[in-house]
Design brief:
About 80% of the residues lie in helices and about 0% in strands. It is mainly alpha-helical. It is found in: Endomembrane system.
């Protein structure tokens, strides 16, 4: 059932004719793990069940990888081929050759078994880190944000109470219609009085100017000699 879990993912890839940013790492790692367990099963006796399960896993994971390579873009296809070369060719080949030639026959099964166990544990604990780390960071920042909110939530209220403008009562002047009309009439009377005072000053000034002109003419006229 574990090997069949990626079927919905590859169905989406088949419908949209693209890998949609999915990574091939889980399928390559699963293929490498299944090959390791098959190699361990061949070194032990009475391991038919292990061989059967992991053989099916190798077959399914190979189909997944071929399917992925067919629909993946060029860049992701090259990365997948590099990963296959490193894990399957170099990694698995190194384990097989080193345990076959450098380890005694009686210890080969135990050594390969420990390698399979360590690799499975690493995959089990490392794979969820991409989910655990972002959520741990988000949880930490969320707790910090809530602590800051609880600490400073009353700061704005205290600052508003200290402002002197809040203690000054606001007075609104309301004028009735009768008072407004009286006020306008008083303003009109003041304007008329100022206009009249200005008009009285103008004739007086003109009279003063005319008398001054006559006086100057008298002074400038020649005095006739009496005969």
């Amino acid at each position: 059932m574990v090997y069949l879990s990626p079927i919905p993912t590859f169905y989406q890839i088949y419908k949209k004719k693209t890998s949609e940013g999915f990574q091939s790492v889980p399928y390559v790692v699963a293929l490498f793990s299944a090959m390791l367990w098959i190699y361990y099963a061949f070194l032990k006796s009475n391991t038919t069940l292990i061989i059967t399960i992991n053989s099916v896993g190798c077959f399914i994971e190979t189909i997944y990888i071929c399917f992925y390579l067919f629909y993946a873009p060029k860049k992701e296809r090259v990365q997948t081929l590099k990963l296959l070369f490193l894990l399957i060719v170099c990694g698995f080949g190194f384990i097989v050759l080193s345990t076959h030639f450098l380890v005694k026959a009686s210890l080969q099964a135990n050594v390969v078994g420990w390698i399979c166990l360590v690799f499975s544990l690493c995959v089990f604990f490392i794979a969820p880190l991409c989910i655990v780390i972002p959520n741990v960071l988000g949880f930490s920042f969320g707790v910090l944000q809530m602590a800051l909110y609880v600490k400073y939530k009353n700061a704005s209220k205290t600052s508003e109470q200290k402002l002197p403008s809040d203690n000054i009562p606001n007075h609104i002047i309301v004028l009735e219609d009768g008072k407004i009309s009286e006020l306008t009439e008083q303003i009109i009377d003041i304007v008329k009085i100022s206009a009249l005072s200005r008009s009285d000053k103008v004739p007086a000034a003109s009279q003063m100017n005319s008398s001054g002109a006559e006086a100057s003419q008298v002074q400038n006229s020649p005095v006739k000699s009496q005969v």
